[in-house]
Amino acid sequence: MPATEMVTPRWMRGRCALACLAATASVVAFSGGFGAAPAPTEPDAAPRFNRDVRPILSNHCYQCHGPDSAARKAGLRLDRREDALAALESGLHAIVPGDAESSAILARVTHADPEQAMPPPEIGKDLRPEQIDTLRRWIESGAEYEPHWSFVPPVRPAAPEVSAANTTWRTNPIDRFILATLEAERLEPSPRANAPRPSSAAPAST
Ligand code: HEC
To answer: How does pLDDT run across 139-170, given as a tens digit for each residue?
Structure first.
């Protein structure tokens, strides 16, 4: 087994190998810096509005159910929670927190009848099954909205606790984020590489 596979957490496998490992440090640093994204090892965690849900609604729904009142259809506004939860002219509720089955948006994005399906099929912006699943899980988990990330003050998260046995491997807080993921996946970090030896091919000084 190549060394890169041994230290590649499950969520990365199949997507990429070595490049991802290098990218991990920057991803961790970025999410750590803004405090918005949860650890990437939690694929089953409740979807987050800014990271997971807003892009779906924004790309597929806001054109007709967003901030632009002139373009708004059926009196339905999905970009503000209070509007999305309110009773519609039809008497239905677009979103019922904790109850995806009663939420009209779920009924519409899964509707077999093209007259009812949302977004309207003719605009060619159908949701993928995993996007529908994200909406379902977000509603089931309470359908919380978040302010736009640019209004959320950055919060530095505490570096995770890691096992004492690995203290020699970690040297800075970012290493601890990587090590915590490896430990969660029951993986061992590779041994530290030897310091490069001075090259014998170095050009002779003149
Ligand atoms: C191109 C415009 C357009 C887009 C994009 C669009 N819709 Fe609609 N939507 C409409 C129109 C028009 C209606 C009213 C006719 C109807 O009920 O089918 C409607 C109605 C609805 C209703 C029913 C409202 C009620 O009063 O019962 C829901 C729920 C809905 N849309 C959800 C969505 C969701 C969720 C998305 C994105 C995944 C979306 N729509 C994207 C045009 C759009």
So the answer is: 999 999 999 888 989 998 888 888 766 666 66
With a 6 Å cutoff on the Cβ, whether 96 touches ligand 1 is: no
The structure's pTM equals 0.68
> Does 63 contact ligand 1 (Cβ within 6 A)?
yes
| Ligand 1 atom 15: residue of nearest CA | 74
Mutate to test the pocket of ligand 1, among 53, 76, 78, 132 (most ligand atoms within 8 A of CB): 76
Query: What is the residue with the minimal CA distance to atom 6 of ligand 1?
Result: 119
Ramachandran category for residue 49: left, alpha or beta (phi over 0 → left; psi -120 to 50 → alpha): alpha
CA of 45 to the centre of ligand 1 (A): 28
Give dist(CA 78, CA 87) in Å, integer.
Answer: 12
pLDDT at 79: 97
Domain boundaries in the chain?
49-151
The low-confidence residues of the chain, meaning pLDDT below 50, are 1-9, 11-41
DSSP class per residue in 81-142: HHHHHSBPTTS-BS--TT-GGG-HHHHHHT-SSTTT-SS-GGGS-PPPHHHHHHHHHHHHTT
* Separation between Cα atoms, residue 33 and residue 39, nearest integer Å: 13
CA dihedral over 111, 48, 142, 92, signed as positive or negative: negative
Structure confidence at residue 4 (pLDDT): 42
Handedness of CA 56, 60, 65, 68 (dihedral sign): positive
